Fold this protein.
Amino acid sequence: MTEPLVTLQNLEKRYGHSMAIHDVSLQLYPGEAVALVGMSGGGKSTIMRLIAGLEKPTGGRLTYQDPAPVMRVMYQDDRLLPWLTVQDNVGFGQHGQWVTDLLAAVGLSEAAEQYPAQLSGGQRQRLALARALLAKPQLLLLDEPLGALDALTRRKMQDLIMRICAERHLSSLLITHDVQEAARMADWIIVVKDGTNVYQTAGAKGQEAATVAKVGEDVLRVILDEQVRA
Ligand SMILES: Nc1ncnc2c1ncn2[C@@H]1O[C@H](COP(=O)(O)OP(=O)(O)OP(=O)(O)O)[C@@H](O)[C@H]1O
C-alpha cells in the first residue's frame, strides 16, 4: 500500500489563547491533488504553514514520509526578484538544462532574458511555478496562487498546473476561494470551517464541465450550511 506523503492527526495550532486550528486530520498521498476550501479565517493557511514546516503545531501529530518529501510553496503574490532576469529568477544563476527545461515546460523560453516587470500577471505566475519546481518537489503547496488572475489566464494556469503535476507525479495542496477551481483541479476537496476539517468529498479533476459545476455547487452549499442535493 502507498504510504502518505504527509499525515495530520488531530493537529492543533494556538496563538496565545486563540485557537487557529484544532482536530485537523488528513492524509496527502503521492500524486494526489487536494483542495482546501472554506470561509475566510477558517484555518486553511494555518494548515498549509504547518505542513510546510514554517510553524510548529501546538498539539496533535504531523508526520512525513521517510525520507521527508521536498515541498515548495506558491503564493498569490509571486515573490519574484525584480533585479534578476526570468531565467535567473528560476535558476539563481545556474543556467543548466534543467532551468531551460523548466522555462519550456511553463511556456517562458522566449522570455528567458526579460525582467519580471516586463511580464504579464499570467507570465509572472508561470515563472513563480517554474521556480517552485526547481527543487524537484514531491508536494506543491499552492496558497491561492491564481487569485489575482483574470478568468481566462486563470483557466490556462489551472491546466498548466494539472498537466505538470500529472507529468511529474506531483502531489498538490491547493487553497482556493473558488469552489469551481477546487472542483476542476482536485481529486479530493476538504472543507475547513472554524478551525477544523468538517467535510471531504471527491473532486471532479479531468471530468466534464457539468460534473465540475455540480461538485462545485455542492461544496459551496456545504460551506454556506445549505442542504446538499441528493
Ligand atoms: N500569526 C497569527 N497570530 C494570531 N492569530 C492568527 C495568526 N495566523 C492566523 N491566525 C488566526 O487563525 C485563524 C485561522 O486563520 P487562517 O489564516 O489560517 O485562515 P484561512 O482560512 O486561511 O483564511 P483566508 O481564507 O482569509 O486566508 C484566524 O482566526 C486567524 O485570525
Remarks:
- The helical segments are 44-52, 86-91, 97-105, 121-133, 151-168, 179-185, 209-223.
